[in-house]
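Please fill in the sequence for the structure shown.

STRUCTURE ENCODING:
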């Protein structure tokens, strides 16, 4: 639902120095598998550099690993791990980068504590976090509004926060990080109808899993998303908050 993870990591690349160890948490796109572009972008930013990509999507990790091998990027490794319980040693990374992670977890404070644990003293935290409340969608019809409202409600029920970007700086400060810098950036290029299809699919999955206790609000939002998909082309400019802080 965006222009790609590699593009979102551009603000991280100037921070990288030879010899650093970088942990990329949530390195697999939410849908469509791992295309390897994020890890290739990080892994070739400078030399020598060692990048470890973590995600819970085993199939996506496998695809990302193959893509890195085909691109002859030998500075990357991959492993399955949850963000709330990172499968790495304490104080073992110089940079932790997480894209679209804090909006998907029920307890951001737990995840940020893990990021602090695995960073070396003085290590850098870099976060790319969406704020769907500020995302610009054109044309923004009644069906688009209804689909987005229902999808945001579903995300909150699942324990996430689609507007996490507006809170991330406070969360990072409360986690004990310092020298926090944060800015909002709008990323264009997302496919208008693909966004609608993704929302329609996620709402449909939730409805199918609800059995006889179907939520009428979600059902109505799913119908609106169905209409959105068939309503022609448009534009999406998604709001992402880029945050850098020091452990």
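FILLED IN BY: designer on duty
SEQUENCE:
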């Amino acid at each position: 639902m965006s222009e790609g993870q590699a593009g979102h990591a551009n603000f991280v690349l100037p921070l990288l120095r030879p010899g650093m160890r970088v942990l990329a948490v949530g390195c697999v796109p939410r849908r469509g598998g791992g295309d390897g572009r994020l890890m290739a972008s990080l892994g070739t930013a400078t030399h020598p550099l060692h990048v470890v990509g973590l995600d819970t999507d085993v199939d996506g990790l496998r695809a990302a690993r193959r893509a890195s091998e085909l691109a002859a990027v030998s500075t990357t490794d991959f492993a399955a791990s949850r963000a709330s319980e990172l499968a790495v040693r304490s104080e073992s990374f110089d940079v932790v980068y997480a894209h679209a992670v804090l909006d998907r977890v029920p307890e951001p404070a737990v995840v940020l504590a893990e990021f602090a644990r695995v960073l070396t003293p003085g290590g850098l935290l870099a976060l790319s976090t969406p704020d769907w409340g500020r995302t610009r969608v054109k044309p923004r019809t009644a069906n688009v509004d209804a689909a987005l409202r229902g999808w945001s409600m579903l995300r909150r029920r699942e324990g996430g926060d689609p507007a996490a970007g507006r809170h991330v700086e406070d969360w990072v400060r409360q986690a004990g990080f310092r020298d926090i810098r944060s800015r909002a950036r709008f990323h264009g290029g997302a496919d208008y109808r693909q966004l609608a299809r993704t929302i329609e699919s996620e709402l449909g999955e939730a409805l199918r899993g609800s059995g006889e206790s179907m939520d009428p609000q979600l059902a109505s939002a799913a119908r609106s998303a169905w209409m959105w998909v068939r309503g022609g082309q448009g534009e999406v400019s998604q709001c992402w908050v880029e945050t850098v802080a020091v452990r």
